[in-house]
Specification:
The structure is a homodimer of 401-residue chains.
Chain A lengths: L1 E3 L12 E5 L10 E16 L7 H12 L2 E11 L5 H19 L6 E8 L6 H11 L8 H7 L8 E9 L2 E10 L12 E6 L5 H14 L15 E6 L12 H23 L7 E9 L2 H12 L2 H8 L5 H9 L11 E4 L2 E5 L3 E2 L3 H8 L3 E7 L5 E8 L3 H9 L3
Parallel strand pairs in A: 4-5, 8-9, 10-14
Antiparallel strand pairs in A: 1-6, 2-3, 3-4, 3-9, 6-7, 7-8, 10-15, 11-12, 11-14, 12-13
Helix pairs in contact in A: 1-2, 2-3, 5-6, 7-9
Chain lengths: 401, 401
C-alpha cells in the first residue's frame, strides 16, 4: 500500500532538511534551494545526454563518481551556468567549496545544480551572499520552499512524497522537481531531487533510478533529448534501517513507490507544459516489440499537430494515424484502432466510428486519454504530454528577458 | 546562366498545358488541378516514407513503376484520400480511369495526387463533375491556376520556372508546389510538380530528382518525416531535343537549374510556414562529416525554442548551442562560433561578443540567417525554416473545420 502524503516533499523524509530563499539571481522570486542531510547519503543520478553540459552538472557527475556519498545539494534557478567555459566551471567549484565550508562538511559531499538562462556568467557575489543566508535557514519543513525556489517558467509548484510499508516498517520517499516547456523538452531543463530513508547500495539505487526515470520522465513528450542542465538525483540516508536488496521482496516494494512518485512528477511536469491547458496521456498497446510501442507513443505525444488538435477539441484522428505512420514503428495501419478514453473513434479496417459530439466531450477536459491499439503483439508504452497553445509561443518568444 | 522567369510555372515549359478550377471539394476556393502533356513524358517521383500512405500516392507509385511514361497528373486539394482503405483506393482508380477516358489516353498514363483532410471518403460525384470540366480547360498558360488549386493552408501561391542554356539551346524547367505548416512538416503535405522539355532517361531523371529533393525539400525543418500524401514528380517531354546524359556537361547544367528551382520552392515553403513571419536559413559549416553537418542543421532548424526566440527578435544563442548539443552531431562546443548574418555572437572558447542592439537588427527582418561554424572539418549543410508564432497554433487548432 503506497500512500501519497499531502503537500509532501524532500523534507517529509526523516533526516532531511531544506530551505528555499530569494538570493537575487532572479529579479523577484525565490531562486536558491539547499537540501541538507547531516547523515552521509548514498546517492545516484541520471544526467543529460546533451553534448553541451552545464558546469554544475559536470561537477556533480564527478562528485557522484568519485565520492559516492553526499550530504547536500545546492540548486539555483535564474542562471544555468551553461556555455560559460572554464570560468563557469571555476565559479561552480567556488560555490561548492563555499557552501561546504559553511556547512562544515567536505566539498565533495556537495552537489550543485542550476537552471535558467544559458551563456551568462553566474553573479557570484549574489550567489555567495545567498549561500551565507541559506545555510542558516535549512529546516525540517523547508522542502516546500525549496520546491518554489527551483521553479522557472513552472506554474505548478512540484513537491511530492509517498510512504510505503516494507517488512512492517514505514519508509518514505520525498521529492521536488521543476520542468515545463515540455512541448519540445529538448531544451527545457528538468530537475528532480529525491530523498529517501531506506538503506541501499549506490549501484542498486542507480539501477532503480534509471529504470524509474526511463519509464516516467523520459516518456514526457520526447525521450532522450535533454537540456544542458537536466538531472535527477536521489539521496538515501538509511535512517529507517530498512535495507533494499536484490532478489528480495523489498526491492519491488521500494521500486513501486519510487515509480509512482516519479509518475506523479512526470504527469505534473507534462500538465504544466508551457502554455498548456490539458494533460494528454498517450497509451500504446498491442505493439509487436517494446521499441515499436515506444516509437509510436513518442511520435504521437510529440506531434505538434495532434497537440494543437486536442487544444482545439478536434477529434482529428487522421493526425494520430499520420503521426503513427511516420514514427518508425512497425505498424499495419489497417489493423489500428484509436479511442479517446473508452470511446472508439477508429476501428480496424479503417472503420471510422467517430461520434463528433461524444468525442468533443472526451477532449474538452483537463485530462485527455488517447488509446491507440496496434492490435499486434503484447507490448505497451505510456507517454505524457500536453496540448499546444498560443501561450507556449508567447512564453518562449519572451523568455530571456 | 540560369534565369528565373517572372510568374513562371509548369506551363512555361513548352508542350505542357494545365488548368485549375473550383470543383466543390473545398468550400470556396479552387480545388482541382490538371497537368497535361500531349507528348508522352518520362517521369520520376519521390514519395513519402510515412507507413500510412494515401490511396492516390500508392496508385501513382505503381504507375511510375509499371509504365514509366505519363501524360497527365490530376491533383485535388481539400481531401487527402488517406486512411480510406480499399474503398479509397477504388475511388482513386475510378478518377484515374475517368480522367484518362476524357483525355483519350491510357489510364496508366495518368498520375493522381491529393492533399487535404485525412480519413474522409472522396466526394466522387463532385470530383468526377470537376474532371468533366477541367479536361476542357487545360491551356498553355493554365499553370498559374493549377498552382492556386493545389493550395491548402498556403498563403503564398507557389509557381516558378527557370531557363538555362545547354549546348546553345534553351531548356526550361517549370514547377508548381504547395506546402506550409513546415514547423513540423511531419504531417504537413508537401506536393511539387515539375515539368521540363529536356530529353532524359527515367533512371537519370530519378537520380537527379532525388539529389535535388534531398538538398532542398528535405532540408526544410525536418528531414525524412513526411505526411501520408507527400510527393514530388517531374515530367520530361523531350520537346527541346536537348539530351541530358551521364558524364556530360549537360548533366551539371541541368542539375544546377533543377537545384536552384527546388531551392526556391523549398525557401518559399519554409517562408510560408503556418503562421510564420520570417524565413530562417540555418547554415552549418566546419563539420567533420556530412552527417554531423546535417544533424546539426536539422536540430537547430527544428527547435521550437530557437524559432520562438527568432520570432521574438531575441538573440538567445544559448538555445542554438543547446539544440546543437542534443543534435547527435559530433561537436566540440568550445570550438563553435555563431553568427547572425555576418554579425558574430559567440566565438570559440565560449567568447560571447553579442551586441544586443546589432543582433536585434539582424533578427528583426523578414529573412534571418543563422551561421554556425563548428570549426572542425569541411562539411556544410543548409536548412530552411520559419519562426514560430501564435498563429501556427490558431491555424492548427482549427484546421479540420
Amino acid at each position: 500500500m503506497i500512500n501519497f502524503i499531502e503537500n509532501g516533499s524532500i523534507t517529509t523524509t526523516p533526516g532531511f532538511k531544506a530551505a528555499g530563499i530569494f538570493a537575487g539571481i532572479k529579479r523577484k522570486r525565490k531562486d536558491l534551494a539547499l537540501i541538507y542531510s547531516p547523515r552521509p547519503c548514498n546517492v545516484a543520478g541520471t544526467f543529460t545526454i546533451n553534448k553541451v553540459k552545464a558546469a554544475p552538472l559536470l561537477l556533480s557527475q564527478e562528485v557522484i563518481k568519485q565520492n559516492g556519498k553526499v550530504k547536500a545539494i545546492l540548486v539555483n534557478s535564474g542562471n544555468a551556468n551553461a556555455c560559460t567555459g572554464e570560468e563557469g566551471y571555476n565559479d561552480v567549484v567556488l560555490s561548492q567549496k563555499y557552501c561546504a565550508k559553511l556547512l562544515n562538511i567536505n566539498p565533495n559531499e556537495v552537489l550543485v545544480s542550476s537552471t535558467g538562462v544559458i551563456g551568462q556568467r553566474m553573479p557570484m557575489e549574489t550567489l555567495l551572499s545567498g549561500i551565507d543566508k541559506i545555510v542558516t535557514e535549512v529546516t525540517e519543513d523547508g522542502g516546500i520552499n525549496a520546491a518554489e525556489a527551483i521553479m522557472t517558467t513552472d506554474k505548478i509548484q512540484k513537491n511530492f512524497a509517498v510512504t510505503t510499508k516494507i517488512n512492517n516498517s514505514i519508509i518514505t520517499i520525498g521529492a521536488i522537481c521543476k520542468g515545463s516547456g515540455m512541448i519540445m523538452p529538448n531544451m527545457a531543463t528538468m530537475l528532480a531531487f529525491i530523498t529517501t530513508d531506506v538503506k541501499i547500495e549506490n549501484e542498486l539505487l542507480k539501477k532503480l533510478l534509471v529504470k524509474a526515470v526511463n519509464n516516467t520522465f523520459n516518456k514526457i513528450s520526447v525521450d532522450g533529448e535533454t537540456s544542458t542542465n537536466d538531472m535527477v538525483v536521489i539521496m538515501a540516508n538509511g535512517l529507517s534501517n530498512i535495507e533494499i536488496k536484490e532478489n528480495d521482496y523489498s526491492i519491488g516494494a521500494f521500486y513501486d513507490a519510487l515509480f509512482l512518485l516519479c509518475t506523479e512528477m512526470a504527469k505534473t511536469i507534462a500538465k504544466d507544459g508551457e502554455g498548456a491547458t490539458k494533460l494528454i496521456t498517450v497509451n500504446i498497446t498491442g505493439a509487436d516489440t517494446q521499441k515499436d510501442a515506444d516509437l509510436a507513443g513518442k511520435s504521437i505525444a510529440n506531434s505538434s499537430l495532434v497537440k494543437t488538435a486536442i487544444y482545439g477539441n478536434d477529434a482529428n484522428w487522421g493526425r494520430i494515424m499520420s503521426s503513427l505512420g511516420m514514427s518508425g514503428a512497425e505498424v499495419k495501419p489497417e489493423k489500428v484502432s484509436v479511442y479517446f478514453d473508452n470511446l472508439p473513434i477508429l476501428l480496424p479496417g479503417y472503420k471510422v466510428v467517430l461520434d463528433e459530439e461524444k468525442a468533443f466531450k472526451c477532449l474538452n477536459k483537463n485530462e485527455v486519454l488517447i488509446n491507440v491499439n496496434l492490435n499486434g503483439g503484447n507490448y505497451s508504452s505510456t507517454w505524457f504530454t500536453c496540448d499546444f497553445t498560443e501561450n507556449y509561443i508567447k512564453i518562449n518568444a519572451e523568455y530571456r528577458s
